[in-house]
Write a structure and sequence with these properties.
Blueprint lengths: L1 H11 L13 E12 L2 E15 L2 E10 L1 H4 L4 E10 L5 E10 L2 E12 L2 E12 L2 E13 L2 E2 L3 H5 L13 E7 L4 E16 L2 E13 L10 E6 L6 E7 L4 E10 L1
Parallel strand pairs: 9-10
Antiparallel strand pairs: 1-2, 1-15, 2-3, 3-4, 4-5, 5-6, 6-7, 7-8, 10-11, 11-12, 12-13, 13-14, 14-15
């Protein structure tokens, strides 16, 4: 549940490079997080993701918060910061500063690359009810394209969906402050999504998280990304133990 809430807010709250690669020079996108269970369909939070180009790098930031009524069940106050190489869309550094439930967390991942090999130098601190519970440093290793939770939002938007057929899958590695996982994108085809009176022509994909041995580490999530040159995620949906969460586009500037 924790992973979905965090990832949902990140990706829709949410690379082989192609001619359809979006231009992220200056972008701000805001999402609402809706909780649905039976007849209940209520706003549970909001998030804004911004991107600015500074020379050969992008500076990315996400700020997310749950609504007061949702705070009583699971409070979220997240800030994510990232530095991304403007040419490769690969992350250079990632930070997560979060208050989730009764825990405060600060994760840092610094990326280094040698050929096709990627190393993540991570630090992680977790404070629970005012007591330091985790103070950890570790090194993560991967081969090939490797992202974090924030840079994945931009990386996935430049995947060559226009060249894929339904059922096609592509996988990358993803680092957090504590572990490496495999993130697989499964493509389902083009669909029309109606949202707040507007129809969007979208690529429909599913996110699949797995750990060592191919075991799933969370439930699958579905995303709808516009087919135009912006490749803008307009909705992400996933299941919770009770009900589901939908993250939906509110506004964007470019």
């Amino acid at each position: 549940m924790k992973k979905f809430l965090t990832f949902a807010i990140l990706l829709c709250c949410l690379v082989g490079m192609t001619s359809a690669t979006p231009d992220f020079h200056n972008e701000s996108v805001t999402y609402k997080v809706m909780y649905k269970w039976g007849l209940i369909n209520k706003k549970a939070g909001e998030a804004t993701i911004t991107m600015q180009r500074k020379g050969n790098r992008y500076s990315a930031r996400l700020v997310a918060a749950s609504e007061p009524w949702a705070d009583r069940f699971y409070q979220v106050r997240d800030t994510l910061l990232g530095t991304i190489d403007a040419h490769t869309m690969m992350p250079l550094e990632y930070q997560k500063i979060a208050h989730e439930g009764n825990e405060d967390k600060h994760d840092v991942v610094k990326f280094s690359r040698s050929g096709n090999n990627v190393t993540g130098h991570t630090t992680r601190k977790v404070i629970k009810k005012g007591v330091l519970k985790i103070d950890d440093k570790r090194t993560l290793q991967a081969t090939g394209p490797t992202v974090d939770m924030l840079s994945s939002y931009f990386y996935m938007r430049s995947l060559p969906f226009q060249d894929w057929k339904p059922g096609h899958e592509a996988s990358i590695s993803i680092f957090s402050g504590k572990a490496k996982e495999k993130l697989t994108f499964k493509y389902h085809g083009i669909e029309t999504l109606s949202l707040d009176g507007t129809d969007y022509r979208c690529y429909h994909i599913t996110f699949i998280f797995t750990g060592d041995g191919g075991k799933k580490t969370s439930d699958d999530m579905d995303a709808w990304i516009t087919t135009d040159t912006r490749r803008l995620p307009v909705q992400l949906e996933g299941k919770l133990p009770v009900g589901k969460v939908r993250c939906q586009l509110v506004k964007s500037s470019h």
